[in-house]
Amino acid sequence: MITTDPIISTQNINYFFGKGILRKQILFNINLDIYPGEIVIMTGPSGSGKTTLLSLIGALRSCQQGSLKVISKELCNAKQNQLIKTRRQIGYIFQTHNLLDSLTAHQNVEISLELHHHLSWKTGQAKAARMLAAVGLGNHLNYYPENLSVGQKQRVAIARALVANPKIILADEPTSALDKQSGRDVVELMRNLAQEQGCTILLVTHDNRILDIAHRIIHLEDGHIMSV
Ligand code: ADP
Ligand code: MG
């Protein structure tokens, strides 16, 4: 029996894009509970609302209808500064790595720590270097993104997402640009590191080859959750 509270809990979320006659409902009555330490995969056809749901949970857009609790805070109709506080506790991994081209791998990971002002520069540097070593890039600290392979860049993105010890990792199709083996390596790495930190993962994917890393799979179809 699970006795802990969910770390992500949604009740009857509806979400609309557009205004007036262009207003279109994208998410319908979403009810979803995810518990600390769970690895949940979300699948569903293109356009079914996966990225929209992930961005609501990630406090990247604001939810107007229903209830959305993330790390014990209500985000529906929440103030901007609450959304910002919640964002600091989440690590994001996107389809493409979104690294800054003018920064080295080391600097790309470090900037994610700059939100955490309590760390000294030296401690931050060491932590970023350790995280890059953990993703197998200890010898590539001073490489710029253009000199890294697609898989290596995605590993830098994982290091960047995990370096600040987030409670939740949200990953949106993180393997879609990778070949089979590097896709597999990248998610296994994400899972192992997240488990060491006691982190919860919600991962969107089309990639059938990685479904087995999840404790649970949910399916979104036309904005409705089909199975939990
Ligand atoms: P998925 O990630 O499952 O492919 P999305 O959440 O990106 O789906 O999109 C769901 C639906 O919302 C699609 O019909 C898409 O066209 C629409 N949509 C996504 N973003 C916007 C936006 N910023 N403005 C209007 N419609 C959008
Ligand atoms: Mg998407």
How would you sum up this structure, described in words?
By secondary structure, this protein is α/β, with parallel strands linked by helices. The protein is built from 6 helices and 10 strands; from the N terminus they run E-E-E-H-E-E-H-E-H-H-H-E-H-E-E-E. The protein has helices spanning 50-57, 80-87, 105-110, 121-134, 150-162, 180-197; strands at 8-17, 24-34, 39-43, 65-70, 73-74, 90-93, 168-172, 200-204, 216-221, 224-227. The protein has a 6-stranded mixed beta sheet with strand order 6-7-8-3-9-10, with helices on both faces. Helix 5 (150-162) packs parallel to helix 6. It is globular. The protein starts with 7 loop residues before the first strand and ends with a strand.
List keywords for this structure.
single chain; alpha/beta; 6-stranded mixed beta sheet; 4-stranded antiparallel beta sheet; binds adenosine-5'-diphosphate; binds magnesium ion
